């Protein structure tokens, strides 16, 4: 036994770490195959934000913001981008983990030679891949259908929003999955935990006007912060760097990680 291993008995050796990374990558590939072989699940996750973008965008095409004169479709695209992230990285992941726990799959995985951490890392990696594909498709569709693309100085804001938002939402998904009591309740619990925030945060509307106190309160939650950060990258003209929104996302990511580490369960 090496001195380092003796000093840290729970530490992984380099060979063990490499093996776990290979197992996690293999699990991620399996999860991606399962995702795309389930057309209903893939359509709900991947196509829904794109269809909503086309439908809602068609209803406001040609309309402009009354004060800034910005095309409303320019602000709708980042809203739909945020919605796609929420569906893939939060709602579907939380529901899937809850269903796997309720069906006993997580319990059986924990009893196999596959390290539970590698299995969970594979789930997360597959979610990151799906989220990245949805984001790319939404950005491309927004540009082709409505000419809405991130401004030259806003690309960094969009990339940081996507990265920080994905980590935040997946961490919260793992935390929320711990309180979902059954597979039957998974959809209802996840929907109730994000849809009101999405509506009030202007995900589906570019002209929503809220009382000041409500707008300030929503800005403390990740959905509104994500929408604000992404829209800061799309809105034309000089824009402040969305440091406040990114800080909110980072704070909620840390909260989600802490809660997930504390309350995540492999069985009911």
Task: Summarize the biggest pleated sheet.
Answer: none
- Helicity level: over 70%
Rg value: 20 Å
N-to-C CA distance: 38 Å
The shape, in one word, is globular
Beta-strand share of residues = under 5%
Pick out the low-confidence regions: 1-10
Whole-number mean pLDDT: 89
List the secondary-structure elements in sequence, H or E: HHHHHHHHHHH
Helix-strand makeup class:
mainly alpha
What is the count of DSSP helices, taking H or I runs of 4+ residues?
11
| Beta strand count | 0
In total, how many domains does the architecture comprise? 1
3D structure, described in words:
- This protein has 268 residues and is mainly alpha-helical.
- The chain has one domain.
- It has 11 helices and no strands.
- Helix 7 runs antiparallel to helix 10.
- It is globular, with a radius of gyration of 20 Å.
- The N terminus is likely disordered.
Short description, anyone?
The chain has 268 residues and is an all-alpha fold. It contains 11 helices and no strands. The chain has one domain.
How do the strands and helices of this protein lay out in sequence?
Elements: H1 3-7, H2 14-36, H3 39-60, H4 72-102, H5 105-110, H6 116-146, H7 155-177, H8 183-200, H9 212-218, H10 222-234, H11 243-263
Helix pairs in contact: 2-6, 3-4, 3-6, 4-6, 4-7, 4-8, 4-10, 7-10, 7-11, 10-11
């Amino acid at each position: 036994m090496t001195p380092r291993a003796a000093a840290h008995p729970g530490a992984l050796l380099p060979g063990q770490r490499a093996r776990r990374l290979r197992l996690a990558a293999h699990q991620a590939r399996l999860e991606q195959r399962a995702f795309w072989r389930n057309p209903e699940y893939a359509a709900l996750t991947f196509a829904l934000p794109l269809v909503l973008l086309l439908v809602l965008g068609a209803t406001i095409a040609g309309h402009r913001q009354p004060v800034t004169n910005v095309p409303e479709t320019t602000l709708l695209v980042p809203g739909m981008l945020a919605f796609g992230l929420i569906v893939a990285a939060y709602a579907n992941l939380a529901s899937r983990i809850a269903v796997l726990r309720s069906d006993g799959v997580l319990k059986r995985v924990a009893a196999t030679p596959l390290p539970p951490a590698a299995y969970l890392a594979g789930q997360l990696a597959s979610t990151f891949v799906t989220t990245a594909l949805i984001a790319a498709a939404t950005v491309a569709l927004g540009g082709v259908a409505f000419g809405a693309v991130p401004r030259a100085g806003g690309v960094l804001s969009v990339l940081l929003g996507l990265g920080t938002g994905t980590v935040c939402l997946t961490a919260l998904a793992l935390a929320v999955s711990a309180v979902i009591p059954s597979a039957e309740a998974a959809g209802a619990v996840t929907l109730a935990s994000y849809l009101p925030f999405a509506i009030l945060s202007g995900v589906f509307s570019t002209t929503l006007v809220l009382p000041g106190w409500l707008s300030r309160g929503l800005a403390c939650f990740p959905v509104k912060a994500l929408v604000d950060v992404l829209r800061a990258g799309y809105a034309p003209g000089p824009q402040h760097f969305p440091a406040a929104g990114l800080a909110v996302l980072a704070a909620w990511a840390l909260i989600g990680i802490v809660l997930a580490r504390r309350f995540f369960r492999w069985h009911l």
